[in-house]
Specification:
With 662 residues, the protein is an alpha+beta fold. The chain has a domain of 247 residues: Biosynthetic peptidoglycan transglycosylase-like (Penicillin binding protein transpeptidase fold), CATH 1.10.3810. The protein contains 15 helices and 30 strands.
């Protein structure tokens, strides 16, 4: 070590050498200062030309020059798609670039000043002046790499922070959209970002409303934070434009807000944190609800991790919806196929908070229900789509000193009530489910064979489960995943009953949630007996074209009372429920079935034998033959219209739409 230090001391650098090195460095810096603008200008116009060629647009730029080495000034710029209307114009534009980034030919925007910006989005029929935005760039062929979601998001966010300025001043901004006559305009006279913060008003106009919004937030490039908030400047709520005109969905709110903070990558993964929230949010759409849906307040404090082939919503994430908050976990991975894990564990909380958090105007049947006590909830979904047989599904809503203090609308099923049947969202029949209806049949007046055949066909565990069969739901999901479509539902009789008695026919997530809550309320708390539920189910089920209830069905097909149905007739009727209007499609013009599939008949008979409702002799002597004596025979073929008796070989499973593995 001493020898090395002594050598260092012996090194002698002359003053001339120091001056030469210093002069060389200054010369290089001076040359860079002098020629970097010219080099940057060359690369800029080369890139403009490339974009014009690839995107089929014309970019007119006048008065381009560098000032103060890194300030770009343009007198005017226009973007004109070929054979289309002008897309963008700006009368004057000044861009302050980071000098040191410019030296590296990797420009980073510090500030922007612009006057009179106009942007036009025009789409009328096949004509569109902004298609070029979605045209794929014709770059040189690159090596095909494996998809890396982390790198893609990092590149996107880096580009975003390069373009977004810390200081911005735009005078007279005018953004106009015309989508087949649906016109929307956004105006701002003085849009500013000062020291990474912005706050300014904007004017929103469309064919239905004119409103003023207040926009504020932060664009902090040094700390890599973006946030924004939109709120109404008037007494009325802000309304999202465009979707109101085009999709007839009215979304109104007091405020919407978000924030985004991409953190540094760790182990080649990208971490994103941020928030999103809405205040006093309303949604109106005829297919969702006849009333205005008042969602109230909601917030999301998220922690998102993105890797090469996965995205993970960390359990540190918190979701708040009115009075309910919980920490979800979600994991999505893509290799050869998708892998999904979703988990929610909500510890004990007041049950009233759940009901008070439900959107007003959507969960009508629960609005008058009063509860006390606490609840807790657990949900798990785990599936590798490459191996769906190992799918895991768990859902448990537990009670803790829970009780229903007031049944509200839930109590109507316990007494005679009016039932309305719908087809294509139109009411087709209304009748009473009770003794005043001559077709109504109490359970004791319905053939036990029919009751058991329906149970074995639809829900063999009905009298033993509490509304849900997680094994059936799981099996239905596995089947659907294998088929890559919704082929099987896994509904219990309880779920079908609730859907028919309490809910509309509009299929949406909210309706499925309400259905689940109603089933849980009724079944878990025994607000209605199983016998009463089954009795109502048999008396409102559709059994044919405008044929509702077993009383009408037994006469429509066999001209007899439900109490007198035999084994063949009971099995036949049990196979009609899945597709009641299509029962005739199974038969040819001679009145015989188009396909010989007797398995359904024997399958139900085997189940009845195992449960002890028929003997071995009855099972062995069973033949899938029935005699249509009622009005149903007219639906089969005209040649039998005058016949007093029509003999059919009946295979209900071949009825169109009935899954053979129900």
């Amino acid at each position: 070590m001493k020898s090395f230090l002594s050598r260092i001391k012996d090194i002698h650098i002359s003053r001339k050498t120091v001056l030469w090195i210093s002069g060389s460095i200054l010369t290089v810096l001076l040359l860079l200062v002098l020629f970097t603008p010219s080099i940057a200008k060359y690369f800029f116009f080369r890139e403009v030309h490339r974009i014009e060629q690839n995107r089929h647009i014309q970019i007119d730029i006048k008065g381009f020059e560098f000032r103060k080495l890194s300030d770009v000034c343009i007198d005017s710029v226009r973007i004109i798609p070929l054979k289309n209307d002008t897309f963008f114009t700006c009368n004057h534009l000044e861009v302050d670039l980071s000098f040191w980034k410019l030296l590296m030919l990797d420009p980073d925007v510090n500030a922007i000043s612009a006057n009179s910006i106009k942007c036009r989005f025009i789409k009328i029929g096949d004509y569109c002046n902004y298609n070029f935005l979605f045209t794929k760039d014709k770059k040189q062929p690159e090596k095909i790499h494996k998809k890396d979601y982390s790198d893609r998001f990092s590149t996107l966010l880096n580009s975003l922070f390069k373009v977004l300025p810390s200081d911005l001043k735009i005078q007279d901004l005018d953004v106009f959209s015309n989508n087949n006559g649906n016109k929307t305009r956004v105006l701002s006279q003085n849009l500013k970002i000062v020291n990474s913060r912005y706050a300014f008003p904007i004017q929103i106009q469309d064919s239905l409303v004119s409103q003023r919004w207040h926009v504020q937030g932060i664009v902090d490039k040094s700390n890599r934070v973006i946030s924004g908030k939109i709120s109404s400047l008037g007494a009325e709520k802000a309304i999202l434009p465009y979707i109101n005109m085009v999709y007839h969905v009215r979304v109104a709110f007091r405020s919407l807000a978000f924030s985004l903070h991409p953190e540094k990558k760790w182990h080649n993964n990208l971490a994103l944190t941020g928030t999103a929230s809405f205040n006093d949010l309303d949604v109106e759409h005829a297919r969702l609800s006849t009333d205005k849906i008042q969602l109230g307040n909601g917030a999301l404090d998220y922690h998102l991790n993105i890797g090469a082939n996965f995205a993970e919503l960390d359990s540190a994430t918190e979701v708040t919806f009115n009075k309910i908050s919980f920490h979800p976990y979600f994991y999505l991975q893509k290799d050869t196929d998708w892998k999904i894990t979703a988990l929610i564990n909500k510890n004990r909380f007041p049950a009233s908070d759940l009901l008070n958090s439900l959107p007003k105007g959507l969960f009508h049947n629960l609005s008058d229900v009063k509860v006390k006590g606490d609840l807790s909830y657990h949900f798990l979904f785990n599936c590798d789509f490459a191996n769906p047989d190992k799918l895991k599904l768990e859902s448990r809503l537990k009670k803790h000193n829970f009780a229903i203090a007031a049944l509200g609308e839930l109590g109507k099923i316990n007494v005679p009530f009016l039932y309305t049947a719908y087809e294509n969202d139109l009411a087709v029949r209304t009748f009473e489910v009770g003794p005043s209806n001559s077709n109504y049949c109490p359970l004791e007046n319905i053939s036990p064979l029919l009751q058991q055949a329906v149970l074995q066909s639809e829900d063999g565990q009905f009298f033993y489960h509490r509304g849900f069969r997680m094994d059936a739901l799981r099996n239905a999901l596995v089947y659907d995943i294998k088929k890559r479509r919704f082929a099987r539902g896994g509904s219990t009789i309880s779920m079908q009953l609730v859907k028919n008695v309490f809910l509309t026919r509009h299929k949406n997530i909210a309706r499925k949630l309400e259905e689940a809550l109603l089933v849980w309320m009724i079944e878990e708390n025994r607000t209605t007996s199983k016998s009463r539920m089954f009795e109502v189910y048999l008396n409102i089920a559709e059994w044919g074209p405008l044929v509702y209830g077993i009383g009408e069905a037994s006469r429509f097909y066999f001209d007899k009372s439900p109490a007198d149905l035999n084994l063949n007739e009971a099995i036949f009727l049990s196979g009609i429920i899945p597709s009641p209007k299509k029962f005739a499609n199974a038969f040819d013009n001679s009145g015989r079935l188009k396909s010989n599939r007797v398995w359904y008949y024997h399958r139900i008979a085997d189940r009845l034998l195992r449960t002890g409702y028929i003997s071995q002799l009855e099972r062995d002597s069973l033949k899938p033959d029935v005699f249509l004596l009622g009005a149903a025979k007219r639906y089969i073929t005209p040649r039998f219209a005058d016949s007093t008796e029509v003999k059919m070989t009946v295979l209900p499973a071949v009825i169109e739409g009935l899954s053979p593995e129900k």
